[in-house]
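Open question from group meeting: does this chain pack into something compact, or does most of it stay loose? Before anyone orders reagents, we agreed to write out a predicted structure and look at it together. Recording both the input and the output here so the notebook holds the full record.
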Amino acid sequence: MSDELAPFDARKIGVKNPYNKSVLEAMADSTPARICVGREGPRPTIEAWLSFRWDEAVAKDAVFGTVSDQFLKANKIAVRVQTSCADKRDYLGHPEKGGIFPAEAEATLRSKCQANPQVQVLVSDGLSYLAVEENIPALLPALMDALKAAKLTVGTPFFADLGRVRLLNDVGRVLNPDVAVILIGERPGLVTQTSLSAYLAYKPKAGHTDAERNCISNIYKKGLNPMEAAPVIVDMVQKMLAQKVSGVALKL
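Structure tokens returned:
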């Protein structure tokens, strides 16, 4: 499912006999949030309630769905590994497991991916597989081309099931890149379920926290367009390589 399928127009004014409809329309046009939906007695209208339940269902699907092997093959991602999480419920209940490669995954990466690249790109479903399927077909090739155009050595891109942002630390341990970039599905909401983020870290290693990472968020068609996101990511990579630092210490 996609948020494009939602049958409800969030900009529609459901308030009956509004005092100033033009003001409400301006408010509704300024935000994707559910406002001015109206009431039937003390409750939302049937249309607004069904829309809420629809988006809730899509958000749950985004969390529990899985990126297919066919999708990865179509997008030229030949290496797939899984973190230490057994399944999605284990992933949700034990976030720390999503930041660790088990021995089998580590062996796969060491055998199939280039070691010591300047830049290592990985993709993970995170909390929204829909974000991956929606954005990676445009973002990943644009990013890889832009990195190569910048004359940077790029490692073998790979996919990590059930990954967390802190997986960057283990990527540093296993493949030792100068900069690691994870493209990961973000927590879905009731407005969008397809938002992707890019997290970057210079020389990531065990013990690094969010203070040592940078984030480019809200990558999707209603936020930062995936094609526009690619040069933004590359620009940040180049700054990290030049300054030899990432996170709060990086001068943007």
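Observations to bring back to the group:
Strands lie at 39-40, 43-44, 79-82, 119-124, 158-161, 179-185, 196-202, 213-219.
Residues 129-149 form the longest helix (21 residues).
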